[in-house]
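Exercise 3.2. Students should predict the tertiary structure of the chain below and write it as structure tokens, then compare their answer with the key that follows.

Predict this chain's 3D structure.
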Amino acid sequence: MATAWPYTTSRKFFGLFVAQPGVLFRGVDLAYMQLRARRLASRWRTLARLVALPAGLMLTPLDQLGGISMARFDAALAPLIAQIQANAAALCAPQVVYTKSPALLDYLNDAQALRRPADLHYGGGRFVLALLGGSADFDGSPIHYDSQTRASQTRAWQKIHNDVRDKRDAFAALVKGMETCKFDLR
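Answer key:
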């Protein structure tokens, strides 16, 4: 999940969420058997299971995996963003060709990227590149890059879950009045 295409939630999280307490309990059980050469007594096994359940759920590294995924995504797309910024005068002109480096194509294949065309919104000296991110409920929650907020923020890409109406409306207001063209990542 840390190497996957960015997502707001992933179905893989549910498997990790369910498996983590069992892995923690089994690790403690095996460590005890290694040290003592016998299994935990029945009442201690039950107690260990009860402790492993909340402890395992708390240890599930959901936020860390998403952060790693976004950092990888940002680094892979940085050269492409630089090309778009270099062509600010004619972002969607037919003669402008954006080349995808072999490293970017490798990332797109490795991350199992959603290969739907992106929307490149532009106007007023700014551009917004909107891609579809992954989501457990298949609504394709967008990830967008705003050229003006990048200068003032450390986090270049913003994720919006389609179920959060305020953020969805804020994104619609951001691109309102801008021209749009399709941008292919294939």
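Discussion points: The chain has two domains: 11-61, 64-183. The first helix runs from residue 11 to 36.
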